[in-house]
Amino acid sequence: MEYTELGKTGLRVSRIGFGALPIQRTELKRAVRILHVAFDHGINFFDTARSYTDSEKKIGIAFKGKRNKIILATKLYGKNKKDILSLLEESLKQLQTDYVDILQLHNPQQLPDPDDKDSQYTGLIEAQKKGMARFIGITAHKLTNAIATIESGFYDTLQYPFSMLSSKKEIELIELAKKHHVGLIAMKPLCGGLLADIETSFAFLWQFENLVPVWGIQRMKELNQIINLSKSPPPLDAELRKKISEERKLLGSSFCRGCGYCLPCPADIPIPMAARMKYLLRRAPYRKFLTVQWQKNMLKIEHCKNCEVCKCRCPYGLNVPELLNEMLSDYIDFAKTKGIIIERTKGNI
Length: 349
Ligand code: SF4
Ligand code: SF4
Fold this sequence. Notes:
binds iron/sulfur cluster, two-stranded antiparallel ribbon, globular, 14 helices, 2 domains, TIM Barrel, 10 strands, alpha/beta
């Protein structure tokens, strides 16, 4: 396994990080086994969150007695200093440790005021003073917040979505982070499941030595795939570059990343899936999205209340209702090609 230094933290982390969101969906014994195999192959960096239900708990069980051999990052929502400290206490309990290596604010709308004695930032600093966290960071989905995090000088790490679909401006963050010695963690290397070509995605990210992707892993075969790629990283040659440029052309820049920040939707539309349906149908086994339940889910789009809450919340500035309508039309057309006729309940929208 190759290791790299995570910015000013000086932590030597494996160039493959373990993203522990998906192990929420894995049965405990299996999850622990996956975490152990990852560790045995030299993965020492594990990223979780207070909001990932039992993910912290599973990590705590897996690494009891090995705490000083791994680098643990978690993240918290929280409105103020008090929230941060009490949520962190719960995280530490679940993780069966008395400190995390990196404590991150989980996608705050804007950076907290460092001069406010009750802000989340003060909470992070207090956690450091108490020895509950060694380093502090921010996770962001908005480019403006990501730049502000790096340039503020207040944070040791930034976690931001990076993939082969990242824009030129996003890629510039990698150099900016290097210049400011901020450790850069890449979330969503497969763009929330939109990218099926793991080899090309891996090769693209591997070229940046100061960027540590956290690969979301739910199954052993996914872990093995990533470990095998790290043993023999595919070169980013002309063929892979061509694939990347074709993917970029196909998806453009206004696609849904599946982050879920637009939820909840008052019309109960499962936006993170529905807004990507066109691609999911063509990149994943499509049958599971053509069930009666999914047809009902997609038809909920006709009952959108146009409240625009999703539009305001989307960190990528997407016109979500418009995107959903586009996806519904495509869904109905796609289903028809498979012999399934879906009746609209409201006529054409
Ligand atoms: S505009 Fe429609 S899709 Fe968006 S949150 Fe409101 S009801 Fe849901
Ligand atoms: S619409 Fe925007 S906020 Fe909602 S899941 Fe997609 S990218 Fe995320």
